[in-house]
Amino acid sequence: MNTLDNVKAIQQLDPSGVLASTKQFADQCQQAWKEASAIVFPKQYQPIYNIVVSGMGGSRFTPKTIKELYRDRIREPYEIVEDYTLPAYVDGDTLVILSSYSGTTEEVLSCGQDAVKRGAKLTGIIHGGPIADLLKKQAAPMYQFTPTHNPCGQPRIGAGYLLMGHLGLLKALHVLDIEEKEVTEAIAYARSMTERYTEDVPTAQNPAKQLAIAIDNTHPFVITAEFLKGFGNGFANQLNETAKMISDPRVIPELNHHLMEGLGLPRRLSQTALFVFFQSPLYSHRILRRFAVTHEVLAKQQIKTYDVALTGPTPLAQVLEAYVLSGFTSFYLAMLHDSDPVAIPWVDYFKKQLRKG
C-alpha cells in the first residue's frame, strides 16, 4: 500500500476486523475493569505474601505493564514467569495468577499444575480453554471474560482485557489501592485519543499513521522509562506479530550503561536503526535529563530518532494513551506491508511442529 489514506484498500487488507478491535481498546479496558474489580475473593486468599504471574506473549506484556506502572504501590513482591515451572519459593502463601487469553498456553497450564501441587492460592485472567477448566476444578475464583469488544478474536488485539483485568484483580485482592476516578478518567482519555488515529483521519493530521511511516523499513528501538517500561515491551511485541518486523524494547537508564557503545557496528546500523523515544513530562527529573543526553549521543553517532510526546494527565492515562497509539501504528504498518495484521504464520507453524512431539 502506497498511502494510508485509502480507506477502501485498508478494509480489503483487514478481513478479520483488527481495526475494529483496535478502535475498541478503551471499551475492552472499561469492561475488564468493571468486571474484574468487582470479584469477591474468599477469606483464605488473605494474607498474600508474594505474587507470581504466569503468562506469555500478549498475556505477559499486559501484567508486566501493570507491574511497572504500579511498582511503587503494589504491596507484595511480584514476579512474572515466562516458563514451564514456578520459582522454588512458591507455596501456600503465594498467589499465582494464570494469565492466558486463549486458555490453551502450554507454559501457563504447566505452571498452573505446578501451583496446585505446591498448594498455592490460584486465580486467573482468561477467556476459556483447559486453563479455565483447571481453575474451575480447583474452585479458584477468576476473571473469565467474554471478549465482546474484540471482534477479530486475536488475543494481542484484545490486550485491554488482560491489562485492566489484571489491574482489577489486584484491587479486588487488596494488594493495590486505586481510586475508581483514576481508572475511569484514564479510560476516558484513551477513548478521546482513539479519535485522532482512525483510518478516516488523513496522514497529515494522524500521529499513528505518521509514526508508522517513520518506523517502516527500519529496525525500531522502543525507548521508555519508569512507569512506561512494561508498555515498551508490549509495543515491541505488537510490531513483531502485527507488523511482521523486528523490534527492540530498551529502557533508560539501563541502556545508558552499555547500549550506546554498541551502535558503531554493524556500520549499516546508522541506516536501519530508529530510536523511538516515548517522552513524558511525568518522568522524574533525572530520567528527563538522561533522555536529553541520550539524544545527543545518538546524534553524534548518526542514529535516527523519533519522539512521541505523551500528554495524558496521569501515568495510567499515558500508558493507555501509548497503547492506543501503538495499536493503530502496528496496524498501519501491516497495511504498508500489504499483510493481514491478524495472521501469524510462523507462530502457527512452530506450534504445529511442537505438536508432532
How is this fold's topology laid out?
Layout: H1 7-13, H2 18-23, H3 25-36, E1 50-54, H4 61-69, E2 78-81, E3 94-100, H5 106-118, E4 121-126, H6 129-137, E5 143-144, H7 159-172, H8 180-194, H9 207-215, E6 219-225, H10 229-241, E7 248-252, H11 269-272, E8 273-279, H12 285-300, E9 304-309, H13 315-336, H14 345-355
Parallel strand pairs: 1-2, 1-3, 3-4, 4-5, 6-7, 6-8, 8-9
Helix pairs in contact: 3-7, 3-8, 4-7, 4-10, 5-6, 8-13, 9-13, 10-13
Characterize the structure shown.
By secondary structure, the chain is α/β, with parallel strands linked by helices. 45% of the residues lie in helices and 14% in strands. It has 14 helices and 9 strands. The chain has helices at residues 7-13, 18-23, 25-36, 61-69, 106-118, 129-137, 159-172, 180-194, 207-215, 229-241, 269-272, 285-300, 315-336, 345-355; strands at residues 50-54, 78-81, 94-100, 121-126, 143-144, 219-225, 248-252, 273-279, 304-309. Strands 2-1-3-4-5 form a 5-stranded parallel β-sheet, sandwiched between helices. It has a 4-stranded parallel β-sheet with strand order 7-6-8-9. Helix 3 (25-36) packs parallel to helix 7, helix 3 packs antiparallel against helix 8 (180-194) and helix 10 (229-241) runs parallel beside helix 13 (315-336). The longest helix is centred in the last third of the chain and has 22 residues, at 315-336. The model has no long low-confidence stretch (mean pLDDT 96).
